[in-house]
């Protein structure tokens, strides 16, 4: 049951991380500093590229988990652990970087960054910590190698 919940929560986390990337991109294209859009600065491009990379990795793991869940595959525990760890990492990273991309306004009630940050922290603990899911993932990998 926990493995199924982990897969479903991974999709929610991937969706949240994707939305953070979208609002960060939109803000970076709208905000200007030193006479140009802040989205043109290389540092922000790198931040958004890192968010995108983690999001896509988490998305692939979530799809693998969904396949294992829907087909009652024996590797469900492995897929669920991988999906949960990748999605938790991606969502937390996106939430933290999204606040940084928004700068000082990212902490205010005017922007939704803080809501995504709190949701990321909440979902990271809801059915077990990331550490517990990493433990399950490691155990499954050891079983698979044996």
UniProtKB/TrEMBL annotation:
Domain Acyl-CoA dehydrogenase/oxidase C-terminal residue range list: 2-140
SUPFAM superfamilies, A to Z: Acyl-CoA dehydrogenase C-terminal domain-like (SSF47203)
A GO term, aspect molecular function: acyl-CoA dehydrogenase activity
Domain of life: Bacteria
Alphabetical list of InterPro entries matching this protein: AcylCo_DH-like_C, AcylCo_DH/oxidase_C
Record keywords, A-Z: FAD, Flavoprotein, Oxidoreductase
Pfam families reported for this sequence: Acyl-CoA_dh_1
Flavoprotein in keyword set: yes
Name of protein: Acyl-CoA dehydrogenase domain-containing protein
Organism: Denitratisoma oestradiolicum
């Amino acid at each position: 049951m926990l493995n199924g919940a982990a897969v479903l929560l991974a999709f929610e986390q991937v969706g949240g991380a994707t939305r953070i990337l979208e609002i960060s991109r939109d803000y970076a294209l709208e905000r200007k500093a030193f006479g140009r859009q802040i989205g043109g600065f290389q540092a922000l491009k790198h931040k958004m590229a890192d968010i995108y990379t983690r999001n896509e990795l988490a998305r692939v793991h979530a799809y693998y988990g969904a396949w294992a869940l829907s087909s009652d595959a024996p590797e469900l525990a492995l897929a669920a652990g991988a999906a949960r760890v990748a999605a938790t990492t991606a969502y937390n990273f996106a939430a933290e970087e999204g606040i940084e991309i928004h700068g000082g306004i990212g902490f205010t009630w005017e922007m939704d960054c803080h809501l995504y940050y709190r949701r990321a922290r909440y979902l990271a603990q809801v059915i077990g910590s990331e550490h517990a899911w990493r433990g399950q993932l490691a155990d499954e990998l050891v079983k698979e190698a044996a």
